[in-house]
Specification:
heterodimer, A: alpha+beta, DNA ligase i, domain 1, D-amino Acid Aminotransferase, Chain A, domain 1, OB fold (Dihydrolipoamide Acetyltransferase, E2P), 3 domains, seven-stranded mixed sheet, seven-stranded antiparallel sheet, 35% helix, B: alpha/beta, Metallo-beta-lactamase, Chain A, Rossmann fold, 13 strands, 20% strand, globular
C-alpha cells in the first residue's frame, strides 16, 4: 500500500491538474496491474460493499482513543471527515506492532473483502490491529477504503486522461471501458489499456452521457431557431436503456444499474430490436402529466417493487436520442438523423415514448417557459440539430434553459461546520421564516455564497452565537438571505408543513432587516 | 511590545522576579510561546493563580521553555484542545520543509510559506539555521516581517540569514528562494513576482487536510506555537491545580473533558479572539 499512499500524497500535494495527471500516469505505468486496477476503482469514486459497520468504526475508535462520544463529535466538526479524524486522533496513542507492507490488491482482496463476512469481534480485532500498526498516512487510507469516502481532488476525467495517456488511446475509449459493472483485477486492467477497440464488449455497457450546459444568455443569441431542436426539460432520472443479446439494462447517469426498479420499462424494451441503445428520462407519469420528483423517489428507494407502489407511481421512459441502431454506434450522426431513426421505435401512449419537439419562435418559447411549473417541467432543452452525440459537458451543442427558481427571503437561525474541505468553516446553514411571531425552520442550504462571503459569515456567526448544541450553533436572528428553490410541496415530516427542493442561497440581503423576511403563509401560497 | 505600542509606559520584570501590587505578589514565568511570552503568577495570602496565556511545550530555539508553575487555580488556553491536534516533533516538520524547498529549487520554483509575522517566521528561521548548506537557495522575507525579525536578532536570537524582497526582485531572481510572508499577502499584486511558486502555510490548523484543501495550499506544515492535546492535558496535571478556567478555541470541550475525566472544577472564559484557530478567517493578529 506504500506506493498507493505515495500516489495519494502526490495528488494531495498539488492543485495543478497536469501534475495530478503526471502522478497518475507514473503510478499506472509502474504499479502492478492488480494494484492499478484497484486504484482505478477507488479513484473513480467506486467503493467496496460495506466491509465493517460504521457504528463499529465509531465504537472501536472510542475504545482505542478513550474519547467519549461527544468529544468524537467535536473532533468530527473540526476534521470534517471520519476516516481522517481517527487517523489523527490515534497519533496520541502508543503504536502497536508494525504491519508488514502488502500491496493495495492484497490489502483489498486478502484482508478487507474477507472481513465483510467475519463476525463483529473478529472485525474489531483486525481493524484495531491495523490502526495501531500502520503509519498515519496508510492508516488514513485504510479508513478511506473502509468508509468509502474517497475524496482526493481527482475527477473521473483526470483518471481517464491518465489511463488514455498510458494506453495511447482516446479518452472516450477509456471512458466507455470504465462504465458499467466490472471487478478490478490484473486482467481487467490490461483490457482497459488494450490499444485497439476490438471490444468483445460486455453487452450491458452503456455509452458515456452527453450533458447540457446552462444557458446564460438570451436564446436569440443562439441564432436561427430552425437549427435547434427544443424539448421540455423533464424532471426525472436521466437514463440509458440498453437492449442487446436478448437482454435489457437500464443505467442511471450515475452509472448505476436501475433495471430492476422499473419492471414496466424492462417489459416494454423487449419489443426493441437487438442492438438498440436509447438515451432518455425515467419519469413518473399519471393522468397525462408528470408527477413530482418526490413521487419517483418512492420507486428509487426500494429494491423490491410492491405492486401497490407501482400502481400509485407508474413510470414511462421518455426517449431523447438513439445512440446505437442494429448494433452500430450511431453517435457520430447528426441529431436530426438519430431522431429520425428513433421515432419508429417509440409510440405516443406506450411506456416507451419520445420526448416531443416543442414548436414556436424564441419569443413564443419564452412565453411557454413561464408555464413550466404548471406543466411540471423544469424549462427547455435546446439541442443543435446538426451535431453528433458528444461526451461529458461541452458548451455550444446542448443547452438547458431552466425556469427561474422560486424565491423566499429567510433568516439564518442555525449554522454548523461543513464536511471535507469545508471542515471548520461554518457552512451548513438552516433558515427560517416567520410564523406567529416565531422563526420556523424551512430549509437547509450549503451553496451559493462566494468564499469571501462564507468567511465573513463564519466570523459573524462565531461572534453572534446564542447557544451551542454540539456542533450546531443557534445564532442571533439577524441575517437575511434570498433562497432559491425548484419546487415546494406539502410535507408531514417537517415542522413547517412544507418541503422545498434544491434550496440554495441566491443573495445575502444585507439591506433587509430580519423582521421583513417572508412568512410561512407567503410560502404556502406557492404550493400548487 | 515596544514595536507594537510605541508610546506605552512599559515596566519590565525578569522571569521569576516577584513584584508586590497591594496584597498580591505578581511574577512572570516563561510560556514558551514566542520570545518574551510569559505566564502570570499571582499569589494572595497563600492562594496561587496562574494565567498561562498562549503557550507550548515543544522546544523552540527562539524563546525560553515553558516553566511549570504549581498553583491552585490555572487559567489555560485551549486553542487546539481536541485529540486530533497532536504535533509531530519539530525536527520532522522542518525536515519536510527543507525537502519541499529543495525539490522546488531543483525545478526552479520558488517556495512560499505563509505564517505569522511575529514568532512563527523567526522560529522557522532559527530552526533552518543549522540545516542550511552551500547548495541551498536564499531565504527571503516579505517586508512586513523584516522589522520583527531584526528585533529578534537584536535580542541575541540566532536566525538563518534572510533578506527583504525588494521591488526589483522577481522571476529568476527568486527561482530557488524560500520566501516567508504573512497570509495577508496572498492574493495581492505582491504575489505576481512569484508566478509559479509552490504555496504552503505553517500553522497548527494545517493538521486537518480539509482546511488546507479548502484554501488550496499545496502544502500545510503543522507547526504551532500553541500546546497540543497531550501537552494541554499533561500541563494541567503538572500544575497540580484543582480549579481550571479555560479560554480560547475549544474551551467548552476541554473544560468538559477535564471535568468529566479528571474531576476538576472547571469553567470557561469568553474571549473575542480566536488566536491561531481563527487565523484563516480573522484579520492578522499576533499569536
Amino acid at each position: 500500500m506504500r506506493r498507493f499512499s505515495q500516489l495519494y500524497e502526490s495528488l494531495d500535494r498539488t492543485t495543478s491538474t497536469n501534475a495530478k495527471v503526471a502522478a497518475l500516469v507514473e503510478y499506472f505505468r509502474e504499479a502492478p496491474s492488480a494494484d492499478a486496477a484497484w486504484a482505478t476503482f477507488f479513484l473513480t469514486g467506486r467503493r467496496l460493499k460495506r466491509v465493517v459497520p460504521s457504528a463499529g468504526l465509531r465504537e472501536w475508535s472510542q475504545e482505542v482513543t478513550g474519547m467519549p462520544d461527544w468529544l468524537l463529535g467535536e473532533c468530527y466538526s473540526a476534521a470534517g471527515d471520519f476516516g481522517e479524524l481517527i487517523a489523527l486522533a490515534l497519533d496520541a496513542i502508543p503504536p502497536g506492532p508494525p504491519q508488514p507492507e502488502r500491496s493495495l490488491a492484497s490489502w483489498v482482496e486478502d484482508r478487507l473483502l474477507p472481513l465483510q463476512k467475519a463476525d463483529l469481534a473478529a472485525q474489531r480485532a483486525m481493524v484495531i490491529e491495523w490502526w495501531l500498526g500502520l503509519p498515519r498516512a496508510e492508516r488514513f487510507l485504510l479508513n478511506k477504503l473502509l468508509t468509502g469516502e474517497f475524496r482526493v481532488g481527482v475527477s473521473h476525467t483526470l483518471v481517464v486522461r491518465a489511463l488514455a495517456t498510458v494506453a495511447g488511446t482516446e479518452p472516450t475509449t477509456i471512458e466507455a471501458r470504465l462504465m458499467g459493472e466490472w471487478m478490478p483485477s490484473a486482467d481487467w486492467f490490461s483490457s482497459v489499456l488494450t490499444p485497439s477497440a476490438d471490444d468483445e464488449a460486455d453487452p450491458s455497457q452503456p455509452y458515456p452521457f452527453f450533458l447540457a450546459a446552462p444557458l446564460e444568455d438570451p436564446p436569440e443569441t443562439l441564432g436561427d431557431r430552425a437549427d435547434w431542436l427544443v424539448e421540455w426539460k423533464w424532471d426525472g432520472i436521466r437514463a440509458q436503456l440498453v437492449r442487446r443479446a436478448g437482454q435489457t439494462w437500464l443505467w442511471s447517469r450515475g452509472e448505476e444499474l436501475i433495471t430492476h426498479r422499473f419492471p414496466e420499462i424492462t417489459a416494454a424494451a423487449t419489443h426493441l430490436p437487438d442492438g438498440t441503445v436509447l438515451d432518455g428520462e425515467v419519469l413518473a407519469f399519471k393522468d397525462d402529466r408528470p408527477m413530482p420528483f418526490s413521487a419517483l423517489q418512492q420507486r428509487i428507494g426500494r429494491q423490491k417493487q410492491v405492486a401497490q407502489v407501482m400502481r400509485a407511481v407508474p413510470v414511462v421512459f421518455v426517449a431523447y436520442d438513439l445512440l446505437e441502431r442494429d448494433g452500430a454506434d450511431v453517435r457520430e450522426q447528426p441529431l436530426s438523423a438519430r431522431r429520425a431513426s428513433l421515432m419508429p421505435l417509440t409510440a405516443a401512449d406506450s411506456v416507451l415514448r419520445v420526448s416531443e419537439e416543442v414548436e414556436g419562435s424564441w419569443e413564443q418559447l419564452a412565453a411557454l417557459r413561464r408555464e413550466s411549473r404548471e406543466r411540471a417541467v423544469e424549462g427547455f432543452m435546446l439541442k443543435r440539430r446538426d451535431v453528433p452525440y458528444g461526451v461529458g459537458r461541452r458548451k455550444g451543442a446542448w443547452w438547458k434553459w431552466k425556469i427561474d427558481p422560486l424565491t423566499v427571503d429567510a433568516v439564518l437561525i442555525y449554522a454548523q461546520p461543513g464536511n471535507g474541505r469545508r471542515a471548520s468553516l461554518l457552512t451548513d446553514y438552516t433558515f427560517g421564516v416567520w410564523h406567529e411571531g416565531q422563526l420556523v425552520p424551512i430549509a437547509k442550504a450549503y451553496s451559493g455564497l462566494s468564499n469571501a462571503e462564507i468567511e465573513e459569515l463564519d466570523r459573524w456567526i462565531r461572534r453572534h452565537t446564542i447557544e451551542r448544541h454540539g456542533p450546531v450553533r443557534a445564532v442571533e436572528p439577524v441575517q437575511v438571505f434570498e433562497l432559491g428553490f425548484e419546487a415546494i410541496a406539502p410535507s408531514t415530516r417537517h415542522k413547517s408543513g412544507i418541503a422545498v427542493r434544491f434550496p440554495r442561497m441566491l443573495r445575502w440581503r444585507t439591506d433587509k432587516p430580519a423582521a421583513e423576511a417572508d412568512t410561512l403563509e407567503n410560502l404556502r401560497r406557492l404550493i400548487r | 511590545m515596544r514595536r507594537r505600542l510605541p508610546d506605552a509606559l512599559i515596566e519590565t520584570a525578569e522571569f521569576g522576579q516577584a513584584v508586590a501590587i497591594g496584597d498580591a505578589r505578581v511574577s512572570f514565568h516563561p510560556a514558551g510561546h514566542i520570545l518574551g511570552s510569559a505566564q502570570v503568577r499571582v499569589e494572595v495570602g497563600g492562594e496561587i493563580w496562574v494565567v498561562s496565556g498562549d503557550y507550548k511545550r515543544q522546544p523552540d530555539p527562539t524563546c525560553a521553555p515553558f516553566d511549570v508553575v504549581p498553583c491552585h487555580t490555572f487559567i489555560t488556553e485551549a486553542t487546539f484542545a481536541l485529540p486530533i491536534y497532536t504535533w509531530d516533533p519539530t525536527t520532522a516538520v522542518i525536515d519536510e520543509i527543507v525537502e519541499w524547498w529543495r525539490t522546488n529549487s531543483a525545478q526552479r520554483r520558488p517556495s512560499v510559506i505563509f505564517c505569522y509575522v511575529l514568532g512563527k517566521a523567526q522560529r522557522i528561521l532559527a530552526e533552518l539555521l543549522p540545516r542550511l548548506t552551500e547548495a541551498d537557495g536564499p531565504i527571503h522575507l516579505h517586508g512586513a516581517m523584516v522589522a520583527l525579525t531584526e528585533a529578534y536578532r537584536a535580542s541575541g536570537i540566532r536566525l538563518a540569514p534572510a533578506e527583504r524582497i525588494t521591488d526589483t526582485m522577481r522571476g529568476a531572481a527568486l527561482a530557488r528562494s524560500l520566501v516567508l510572508a504573512p497570509l495577508s499577502a496572498r492574493g495581492t499584486p505582491w504575489m505576481r513576482r512569484l508566478p509559479n511558486a509552490s504555496i504552503a502555510f505553517a500553522s497548527g490548523l494545517m493538521r486537518v487536510r480539509g482546511v488546507r484543501r479548502q484554501r488550496a495550499f499545496d502544502r500545510g506544515f503543522v507547526l504551532s506555537d500553541h500546546a497540543d492535546w497531550p501537552s494541554l492535558l499533561s500541563t494541567v496535571a503538572e500544575t497540580g491545580a484543582s480549579r481550571v478556567f479555560v479560554t480560547h478555541g475549544w474551551s467548552d470541550a476541554f473544560a468538559r473533558y477535564l471535568r468529566e475525566t479528571r474531576g476538576l472544577d472547571t469553567g470557561t472564559l469568553r474571549t473575542a479572539f480566536e488566536g491561531e484557530a481563527g487565523e484563516l478567517t480573522a484579520p492578522e493578529e499576533p499569536e
